[in-house]
Amino acid sequence: xxxxxxxxxxxxxxxxxxxxxxxxxxxxxxxxxxxxxxxxxxxxxxxxxxxxxxxxxxxxxxxxxxxxxxxxxxxxxxxxxxxxxxxxxxxxxxxxxxxxxxxxxxxxxxxxxxxxxxxxxxxxxxxxxxxxxxxxxxxxxxxxxxxxxxxxxxxxxxxxxxxxxxxxxxxxxxxxxxxxxxxxxxxxxxxxxxxxxxxxxxxxxxxxxxxxxxxxxxxxxxxxxxxxxxxxxxxxxxxxxxxxxxxxxxxxxxx
Length: 255
Hints:
Layout lengths: L4 E6 L3 H13 L6 E6 L2 H10 L4 E4 L8 H8 L7 E6 L5 H6 L4 E4 L4 H13 L17 E6 L2 E6 L5 E5 L2 E5 L4 E4 L3 H7 L4 E5 L2 E4 L3 E6 L10 E5 L5 E4 L4 H8 L6
Parallel strand pairs: 1-2, 1-3, 3-4, 4-5
Antiparallel strand pairs: 6-7, 8-9, 8-12, 9-10, 11-12, 13-14, 14-15
């Protein structure tokens, strides 16, 4: 007999978690499990890094960190537990499968449907559950792996992104983080928060407080650099991106 599946239930509503526990009790004879709970994405990430789980059943709509953002951070771990989305919002179904979730359950969940979803995880314990980047929801946090643990970087704290070789550096007031992200994807996802100032750099719109000239205008060399709130570092503005930066500084709320 296979060992019990190690499950983590992630939902901000206690009655929803209790309902899943009741269903798991109903199917315990055919699908034995051990169960832990988390009331949100942040707590769930902490639990996943401190314990070993085979499957995470996660709600999509949650405050703070929703289920899809949580699952995207979870995918940074190796191996990562399988993901089953459990939600009342069936319009997310197609997108959930695009994200390579193992399965997708619509509330109210039926015992037989839950058993079938868990059976998939039981049959394929080593199946990689790699979640791709999705435009379904803009992330509040980015993540990186340091010393085997996931670090979360609030997007609101990031002053700029800079592409360097195969990594992107995210700069905050306190330090730099190395991300395995594409600058193009970051620009698309956070278009309202960041402005491209160079082919290898995005600056936070709210952090740009001015520009200064670095020299006479040339054909190839940038002659302007931006001044950023909170740090002394200056970043060059390319000739191609100068018009976008100039337009940003002319916005009425900056005058």
